[in-house]
């Protein structure tokens, strides 16, 4: 920890690399860093009091992955559990085990939030302003580092998206947001209404239906939902036949190819994909009218992220009569529940507002370069990893159409390659710079509401490689580590930095 003398100048600790965030990405980044650069000093700064990120924060019933764990897990640590689509506690145990087995947990500093980062070209260092919880309160400290790597994702851990609903103060029941689930919430025998139709809603409905009197999912418009096997039987046979590490690679490759193939099918043949998905849902529910009304969106598959439901649990809850889907708009809350524009009143003891995430770029760190604030939405992202105008700074951005970790691990490996490149050439700092003007596109190319609300605050991607954030792991896996760093990374000798 930094040594401080009260009332005198501060002696500031210096590290080679600082990783922000101790979630799935941050732990993976630390593994790659200490494996490929064992001599470098580093710390993982985590604002919360425990590791795991998303998988520790979200505690709502049924919390699970919506990607298979053979691709969401790390390539260097085989997934051993039976279920391919895993529950949140299992994923959290997996992340914790990875950190402990590799000694990464000794580098994590909990209760430590990075609120600002100032780059100084005269020293080629970042000065980080931290708030740190102590036994007596919260202290503000400084820390310097040579390279800053943000692995904090892109949504706000402190705020979810909560629209203002008319009449909500008149409601006589309890309103809950999934991001802040009350530990002691008892919904046994209660009437529950879940507002929303995304991954969180379709997870909550079957999980709560097991104990609640009834669960109604209230959606304004339908979402594409697809049943997937909770357990991968082919993967089970491969694991029975091959050695563990080889089996993991084979299963991972199989799933990557399938997921990319299905995504490309949806994008290139949207009408055929629509027919396939509605046909599968009709086969389960055996009600064409219900599928047409509640499960046939106006947009094409993968214009927004596809919701996966393992073993069709969501649809099975509907067939049992424990769950219902209503497609309508809210007129107002009333004491007994929610009155819809159609005039129907949904009775509720508990309303769950599964209304989405609030985006926040890279943990909300206030970035400055030589005293000048960095306007993120003026910058471009190179290789999905570094930003123009911001030296020695990398960000971890996962895929939107596949497992987050596939891109996250490639990014961490690329960061390690950049650090080695700087060492070999004696460069104290590098910054990406395009060879000619770029046409800008949004960083995340999905129509989902939670993305569209805030994407304007994020950096942009360009119109050509390596300035595009591709959604194709096959291409990225072949090209990322073969990147010629000399073509795009400009070295910045000390005292010769051009201002942003």
UniProtKB/TrEMBL annotation:
Co-factor(s): FAD
Keyword flag Cell inner membrane: no
Highest taxon of the lineage: Bacteria
UniProt GO molecular function: flavin adenine dinucleotide binding; N,N-dimethylaniline monooxygenase activity; NADP binding
SUPFAM superfamilies: FAD/NAD(P)-binding domain
Pfam families associated with the record: FMO-like, NAD_binding_8
Alphabetic keyword roster: FAD, Flavoprotein, Monooxygenase, NADP, Oxidoreductase
Family, similarity comment: Belongs to the FAD-binding monooxygenase family.
Protein name as it appears in the record: NAD(P)/FAD-dependent oxidoreductase
Organism: Nocardia uniformis
Lineage: Bacteria, Bacillati, Actinomycetota, Actinomycetes, Mycobacteriales
